[in-house]
Design brief:
This protein is of the alpha/beta class. It has six helices and nine strands. Helix 5 packs across helix 6 (168-191).
Amino acid sequence: MERAIKKRLAVLVSGAGTNLQAILDASGPSYPAEVVLVMSDRHGVAALDRAAAAGVESVVVRLEDHADRDAFTRACVSALEKHAVELVVTAGYMKLFAPSMFERFPRILNVHPSLLPAFPGYAKKVLRDTLAYGVKVTGVTIHFLEDGTDTGPVVFQEAVAVEDGDSPESLHARLQVVEHRLLPDAVRLMAEEKLTLDGRRVRIQSGT
């Protein structure tokens, strides 16, 4: 039987790359996507070491090396196109793109450590704000990026209890367990073209 062609996936990272690792670990023979590029906005992060260990090519594109966000975004798009990327995931990626990114890649998956639209923003701030606000339940959101901060349509959400005595680190550790399960599943569905938009609602197609 002819082997199915995998979609070419890029994972964009800024730090430890634990969600990148979750995708790499999920990528067996039957997985419909292959990580062909890891792109970071900074040198020296652990995610780049994970890419090297998996034999995946990596590239660093820094905002400060470009005249403005538009030029930075064009450089990112160029790197993705150079590697014939079809699918894009941002996993702990710390930079915002100009609209030209979404013109070229309109369906970019992102993982976020809260139940959006509550507590948008970067992960460290989100965790601090979650605890400062005193909520009893937070969670994980997998959503599509758009030209706004964490405003895109939701693919998956799962609740996680906030425990008495939680620190940002302890809460993040429990959230990551959920992230590492949900994100590879969302990538699979996107690669299999089973995620469709109905207004702002993401529909998940069933069946093969």
